[in-house]
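Morning. Coffee machine broken again, so started the prediction first thing and wrote up yesterday's gels while waiting. Chain of 270 residues, entered below exactly as on the submission form.
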Amino acid sequence: MSKISFVSAVLILILATGCSTRGTRTYTNFGQTKTYSSDSRSHSQVINQKDYKHPTMRPYVIRGKKYYPTVVNVGDKFSGNASWYGPDFHGKLTSNGETYNMYDMTAAHKTLPMNTIVKVTNKKNGLSTVVRINDRGPFIATRIIDLSNTAAKKIDMINDGTAPVSIEVLGFHSKGQRKVPLQEQLKDAPQDQQSDGFAIQIASFSRFEGALLTQKKYDDTDGYKTIIKDMQTQNGRMFKVWLKGFRSEQEARDYKSLGHFKDSFIVRED
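Came back before lunch.
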C-alpha cells in the first residue's frame, strides 16, 4: 500500500469512529493562533446540515460506553468539570481529522457537534474563554470538556488541572462563514440535547430531510418540543423524531393516549 493510500485509510477510520486517536504525527509551526468571538451574533445560529451528517455525529463506543452525539440550540447551558490537554497531543490528529494545535482556541467534547462555538466560564474565578469543538473527549465520567492549553490558561486552570465550569452554546462555525442566518431560519436545525426524561417517538426516517420536515412541523405541539435522534439500527442509519418535555412517564402515557400520533410509542432518553 502506498504512503498516500495508507494515510487516506487512517483518516477515513478516524472519521468513521468519531473518537480521537490523537496519533503520532507531529508539527511545530502552525502559524497564527485562531480565536473566536464571545458575541453570539458573530456565529451562525444554526448548524450546517453537512456538519450534522458528518461521521463524527454517529453514535460511538469508548471503553464499553456508548455515546450519542447531539445537536443543541444557541443559548443552551451545561455545567461540569473541565480539564485540558497540551504538549503530549500537540500536532496529532483530532477526531474530525484536524491537526491539534494547543495554541488554538479549541476543545474536545463527547457529544457536541464539531464546530460548535461555546463559552466556558471557570466558576472559581469568573474568567471565561470561547472555543470551537473539534475533538471527542474527555472520556472520564466527571468531566465534560477538554480545553486546549491556551484556552485553559485563559481561565487560569493550568496548575489545578481541572476546574468546575459552565458552558454556553454561542453558535456554530462554518468555513468561509459570511453572515448570521435570519431569525426565521433558526428552526432549520434539528434540536436535541441529552436529558433523563421520557419522550414519545412520533416518526422514523432513513433520510435526514424527512425527519427535519417532521421536526419543524410538530415542534412546540401543545407546548412540547421535537428533537431528532440519529441512531444506528439493524436496518442502517435512522433519524427518529421524538416529542419531549414530559415531566413523568405517566404524563407521556396520558398524552400518547390522546391518539394524535399514529403508531407512536414512549421512549426513555439516555
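Confidence is low (pLDDT under 50) at residues 1-30, 177-196. Going to sketch it on the whiteboard this afternoon.
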